[in-house]
Structures are given as C-alpha cells and as structure tokens.
Design brief:
With 383 residues, the chain is an alpha/beta fold. The protein contains 10 helices and 14 strands. Helix 2 crosses helix 3. The protein is globular.
Amino acid sequence: MSVPVALVAGLHGTARATVVDRLLREHPGAVAIHHDLRAITRGLVTRTVRDAGTTLERTLIRLEHGCVTCTVREDLIPQLLRYAGRAELLVVDLWDCVEPRSVAEALDHPGLDGDIRLTGVLTAVDAELMPTDICRGELLTEAGKPGAPGDRRYLAEVLAHQIEYATALVVPETLPAPLPPADRGDLDLCRELLGHLAPITPVTMPGEPLPPLAGPALCAHELAARVDPATAQLPCASHTPAADTVVWHRTTPLHPARFFDAMDVLATESVRSRGRFWLSSRPDRMLAWDAVAGVVMVEDTGPWLAALPEHDWHTVPPARRLAAELDWSADHGDRVQHLVLTGPELDHDRIHALLDGCLLAPGEPATCLDDPFAEILDLDTAV
C-alpha cells in the first residue's frame, strides 16, 4: 500500500510551519521533510526531517545546479521513498517561494505509484499578511525569497499561484485565542478575499478540522487543468464589502492596439486578473492574461481548438475539448474573450465599457493592424 503524501505550501513561513506541526500531531507516525532554500543561490540546501516531537536529521546538501527542480529531483523524491517504509503520512513542507505545481507534477510519476501517492496540496495563509502581500508588486529577490539564481518571479504572483493551485487552503491560528476584535477582522477579511481568488477551494479556518489526506492519488493533469488558461475554473462575478470580482465574456475579436493601451488600467485597478483572449491580428492563437499587483504577463498558449483540423482534435486532452465545447459558437468556434478581474470597489460598468471599446467594431478590418503585442510575444506558430 502506498503512503500518502501531502504538500504544504505557503509564502508565510510561520503559518505554514503551524499547519505542518498540526499535521504531525494529528497523524501519529507522520514525517515532515523540509528544504531550507535560503542559500540556494550558492547551490546549498539544508534538509530537515522531523516527526511530531523529534528532529530526525538535519543535512546540508550541495547541488550541482541550485534550483527548486534539482532539489526535488535529486533529494526530495529519494527522501520520500526512503521514509515511505516507516511513515504513515509524508508531509512535504515547501519553502516559502516554492509553487506546489512543479513538485506535484514531479511526484505524479508511474514509477512512484507503488510507494507514495500525492493526496493533498494545502496552502497555508497568514490572515494578517495575506491581504497586503497579494498587492505587493516586488520581485522575490527584493523580498529576500529567491527560489534560484536570477529568479524573476514576483512575490504576489507566487502567492496567487499557491492559493489557486491548492486543493485546500488553511488559515491557522497563529495568535492566542480568543482573538481580539481587530484580529478577528483579519480572519474575516482573509476568508473573504480567498473566496474571490479561489471560490471553489475549501478553506479551513482556526478551530476547524483539516481536510482528510488518506484518499486516492491526485492526478497532476487534473490539478493543472484547474489553473491552465484554456481550461481554468475561473471565478464567477461577485461582490463583497472588501472586493469585487468582475467577469467579462465576449465572442468578438479584440483590436490589438486598443487592448494594449487598456492593459495598464486593467492591471492597476485590479489586484488579480486572469483569463484567455483573442486578437483580430492573431485569430488562431489563444492568448493568456495573468496579472497580479500591477504586473502583467501575456502568453501564447497554442492554437484555439477551432484552428485545428477536426481530425486532430483527438490529440487534445479531454478537459480542453470540454472547455472548448462550453465556449463554442457557430461563428467563432471556441474563440472567446474571458477575463476575470478582482479588486476593491471595481466598477463593473466602467470595466465592461473599457473592454467593449477594445473590441473590433462592425466593418472594421481585421487584418493589416499594428500589433504592439509582437514586442512581448515570441510566438511559435507551429501547431
């Protein structure tokens, strides 16, 4: 019987350690493995293995190439297999800046099925820090949390991806109970914001039971489909006292220059926005929008399903075909504008008017348009 493995991610180290401690207490025989990456830019990693009451080992490791991928491949997986024979549950305590997706996909390997199985991806969140950190537009290196030499990721970007990929979110009790009113307000605000960012993900608040971790193995492909642009389960429109989520969904192509000019407004007025879109100048390519804390990333994610020959559709994953079917129209196939923006006091009508003004007008030519996106997209047009 394979041993269950739970990943515990989180930018907030104290909150994450609190969750790991609780897992070790509540699962007798559980073992936690943690890699301290503070010196990873020098190729050094400190591995700590512990149970509920004892540090079993602490080892300094020198990696040939200092990066998270090398750490997982060269040390984490061998250690998980080493302890699988003696642990009831294996807890992977991920370093602050590690996004759990890369680790989950490394563990989803046929050769590991008989020994270990991934059963949960938990992200721990500090209720006091999260509302501020999701707005911080600084690089991880500037915050002292790089994951590798030359790490160009942003702090808020990593936090958003940790929250959105998780199968469960945990807000631990890091302050003495009962909480004073101001701290209870932090908890309420944090839960409200998590409901905007990951509305279908269960949230465990202080005093509530943690999710069960003894179930079947999770599929990395299914986890990825929840967040990949073509298949993402994007939030619906909602309004709460602290934030609004606005959804814009259209089936007309965007004028590239007008949409490019609107990018700054969309990114700076919202805290988090994401989705997929299509430009009149690139009718066959699905483009992804991913923005957090004012930092925008636009990416070519490949062809729309409607741009592929029908006899090639069987090569596309089922989740991709299902998502395309939900968006399908007789005129445009699965080509669609689907953007979701979250932030405080967002003006639904103003955002819709701004984006509607970026659409190609009736009779406006779709070709021979200046395309400012050519400067940021290195398109590989091969299907």
